[in-house]
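B., you asked whether I could sanity-check this one before it goes into the benchmark set. Here's the sequence:
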Amino acid sequence: MEQFLAFSTENITFIYLLILMIILGFQVISNVPAVLHTPLMSGANAIHGVVVIGAIIVMGQAKSDDYAVLTLGFLSVILGTLNVVGGFVVTDRMLEMFKKRKKN
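And here's what the prediction gave me:
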């Protein structure tokens, strides 16, 4: 318990900042109209390629016997890739809805 109290007193500014970011993020997302929510989220998912690049860099800098870092980096690459691909799939499906259909 002492370690938790010491950590929280040393990082109280970051804890307040995290709480503020959670509240602000919730307010921003909740005020987005439903029509715009899917395009914004699919675009944000596609941008998450930065996570994949960051995970690859971290894995490249890790020691070969540090299995925790390598495992977390591998999971980050896999989940980030799924997020990026999912963003592009959703965006492609949305764009298909706006194409004109051929008349038979």
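One thing to flag: The CA atoms of residues 94 and 100 lie 13 Å apart. Otherwise nothing jumped out at me.
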